[in-house]
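User
Take a look at the entry that follows and flag anything odd:
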Amino acid sequence: MAGFSSFSTVALAGLLLSGCTAMTPPVDVTRFHNAQIAPIVPGSVIIEANVTDEGYSRSIEYATYSAALLRELQRAGFTEVRDNTGTSQYIARYTIDRAVLTAGGARSPISVGVGGSTGSYGSGVGLGIGINLGGRPKDKIVTELSVRISRRDNGSVIWEGRASVEAKQGSPASQPGLAAAKLAEALFKDFPGESGTTIRVP
């Protein structure tokens, strides 16, 4: 995952220039951990995208999420290991799921990081275009970020969480830059957070 360091620097700069994340709708967040029994002691961490294709993990969109996660992990007291040499105490693996939610309730997946669509969606409609010619309500883009932090030495999971947001297709909040910053910030708000409870973060 050595490609993350350079991409993360560029992506983080983009996040800082992207404007206030308050433009995005509320985020639903759920966390799970046993910090009340075994407190989490922050340490060195490496961030990895949970994908099988290295090309995807090095895409601009994944780099944007990696940068956003790094910023929040550092706020929580973790320190970054820039290359996967096996020296980090923790591994933070994340998954991004994006889908189109139609006004009728149908949900179709969108591929992440390659600029197109997959699965039954298949029409290749650009995410940045929000023209509504028929007068019907716009579709929504649902973005979900899932993160699992585990110890490198024994693989035990110390914390995991999921954050999701819905934004109208074509709106600024549906774009990866704003979504990444808002989801990561909400997910790590008051880390480690209350376990087993879903909260809504404005």
